[in-house]
Design brief:
By secondary structure, the chain is mostly beta strands. It is built from five helices and 27 strands. Strands 1, 2, 3, 4, 5, 6, 7, 8, 26 and 27 form a ten-stranded mixed β-sheet that branches.
C-alpha cells in the first residue's frame, strides 16, 4: 500500500532530540549542592532524568519516581507522588504535586571524563512548584492525562501555562500561568457537549502551534489557546480505516495502538489497526500515519488523505532490515514518532525499541533497552508510549550538547542543571 510522496522536508536544520524516559530516577540522601541531572544518549537509546533529595531512602514499597507529564521548550512538567500506592498514577484524582523544571541558560562545559570520554554540560534551571488548587469551587486534578504544558509564543519558553480541561456536562479550563500564585478557571462552550455525543475520555495533551490539544484516542481532539481572552474550543474527529467496534484490538489497550504526536511542525496520528475478522492473521495489521491540516482562525481542520502513509506488518516483517534484527513476528506496541521525520515510527517489542520507515516498510534503528527493570516500579503490565517522550531539546540544551560534541565529548553525556528554588519532594502536599 502506498501513498503520495511527502512534502514535509525540513527547511532548517533540525534541533537535537532525545528519547526521554518519563519515569525519572531519585537520588536520596543527597547533599544540598547536588542538582538534577539529565543523562543524554543518542536515539534510540534512552535518556533519563535524576532528581536529588535530602530525604532518606524509603522502603521499597515507598519508593517515589517523578513522572514526566510533558516536555517541550518550556522545560519539563513533572508529577511527583508521595503516596506509596500511587506510583505511575494515571487514575482519576491523583494525590501528588506538579513541578515545572525550566532550562534558563547554558553554563561552562565541564571537563570530560578521560576514562569514558563522556562529558557533562551544565544548564541553569528554574524549578517551580505548581500550587495546589485551594479554592473550594476548583476541583483537584482529575487525571494527569488531561494536564498539559504550553510555552507562551514569543517568550523563548521562559513564560508558560499549565492547563487542564475537564469535560462532563460542561467544559472547564483550569490554567496556571508562570509568575502567578494560583489557578484560574473558566467555563467554555464545548462542541462535544450534547445529548448524543460519547463520553470524553482524556488520554493525552499535546502542545502545538500556540495551542493545547487534548486527545481522546477513541474519538478526536479538542484544542484551544489557553491564554486567549476568550478561549474557543475546536473539535477534530480522528480518521479511521474502520470503526473501533470492527477492530480486533481491545479498547482498554488503545494506548498500545494509537498515538498523536507532533512531527516536523504538524500533528500526526498513528494507528495500528487490525480488522476483527483478521484476528488470526496479524500480518494484515495496518500501520497508518495521518497528517492534520488545521486553520485555527476559522476552526477548519481535516486529515489530508493525500498525505497519509500506510503499510502492513507483513511488509515490515518480510523486509531484510527486519529479518536482520532477529525479532519475532509479533504485533509491536507504539512508542513514539520521530519529531522531524513523520514517516518514522518507533515501537516496543520484547525489550527492544526500534523504528520503522512506514513509507518503505523498513527498520531504521534497533536497540535493546533495559526498560523491563521498571515494570514493577511503574506498576503497569505493558510498556507503551506512556513510558517515553520524544523531547526536542530547547535551544539552551541543544547548544550545551552541540558545544560538548564540538569539543570531542561522546554523544552520551550528563547535562546537569541546578534547581535552587525547590526540592522535588516538597512536603507541602494537599490531602
Amino acid at each position: 500500500m502506498k501513498s503520495s510522496s511527502s512534502s514535509d522536508a525540513p527547511t532548517v536544520p533540525p534541533r537535537l532530540w532525545i528519547v526521554l524516559r518519563r519515569v525519572g530516577l531519585v537520588q536520596y540522601d543527597a547533599d544540598e549542592d547536588l542538582i538534577p541531572s539529565l543523562k543524554v544518549a543518542k536515539p534510540p537509546h534512552f535518556s533519563s532524568l535524576t532528581t536529588p533529595t535530602k530525604a532518606p531512602r524509603p522502603s521499597d514499597d515507598g519508593a517515589e519516581h517523578p513522572y514526566v507529564v510533558a516536555a517541550n521548550d518550556a522545560g519539563l512538567l513533572l508529577y511527583v507522588s508521595r503516596t506509596t500506592s500511587v506510583r505511575f498514577d494515571l487514575d482519576p484524582n491523583p494525590r501528588g504535586m506538579l513541578f515545572v523544571l525550566a532550562l534558563a541558560q547554558a553554563r561552562d562545559l565541564l571537563p570530560a571524563d578521560t576514562a569514558t570520554g563522556r562529558g557533562a554540560s551544565a544548564c541553569t534551571t528554574i524549578t517551580v512548584r505548581v500550587p495546589d488548587r485551594v479554592r473550594p469551587e476548583q476541583s483537584r486534578i482529575s487525571t494527569i492525562k488531561s494536564v498539559g504544558l504550553l510555552p507562551i509564543p514569543g517568550t523563548g519558553g521562559s513564560d508558560y501555562v499549565v492547563a487542564e480541561l475537564l469535560v462532563a456536562d460542561r467544559a472547564s479550563l483550569l490554567t496556571f500561568r508562570s509568575g502567578m500564585d494560583s489557578w484560574d478557571e473558566r467555563e467554555l462552550t464545548c462542541p462535544l457537549v450534547s445529548g448524543t455525543c460519547p463520553r470524553w475520555t482524556p488520554h493525552d495533551v499535546i502542545s502545538h502551534d500556540g495551542n493545547l490539544w487534548w486527545v481522546d484516542l477513541r474519538q478526536g481532539l479538542l484544542c484551544c489557546d489557553p491564554i486567549a481572552y476568550n478561549p474557543v474550543l475546536h473539535y477534530v474527529e480522528l480518521p479511521e480505516m474502520f470503526a473501533l467496534e470492527f477492530r480486533s484490538e481491545k479498547e482498554e489497550q488503545i494506548d498500545s495502538y494509537r498515538i498523536v504526536r507532533v512531527s516536523n511542525g504538524r500533528l500526526r496520528f498513528v494507528d495500528v489497526a487490525l480488522a476483527r475478522e483478521s484476528i488470526s492473521t496479524p500480518r494484515e495489521t495496518l500501520v497508518v500515519v495521518w497528517t492534520l491540516a488545521f486553520v485555527p482562525s476559522i476552526g477548519k481542520a481535516s486529515w489530508e488523505d493525500h498525505e497519509f502513509v500506510m503499510t502492513t506488518l507483513a511488509k515490515i516483517w518480510e523486509d531484510d532490515s527486519y529479518r536482520r534484527t532477529g525479532m519475532p513476528q509479533e504485533v509491536p506496541v507504539l512508542a513514539l514518532v520521530h519529531p522531524h521525520n513523520p514517516d518514522v515510527v518507533y515501537f516496543f517489542l520484547q525489550g527492544y525499541l526500534f523504528s520503522v520507515d512506514v513509507r518503505h516498510s523498513a527498520v531504521v534503528e534497533f536497540a535493546r533497552e533495559p526498560y523491563s527493570d521498571l515494570v514493577q516500579v511503574i506498576d503497569r503490565p505493558v510498556i507503551d508510549w506512556r513510558y517515553v517522550l520524544a523531547w526536542v531539546l530547547p535551544p539552551v540544551a541543544s547548544q550545551c550538547l552541540n558545544d560538548s560534541q564540538d569539543k570531542d565529548v561522546a554523544p552520551a553525556e550528563a547535562c546537569q542543571s541546578p534547581a535552587p528554588s525547590s526540592d522535588l519532594t516538597d512536603k507541602n502536599e494537599s490531602t
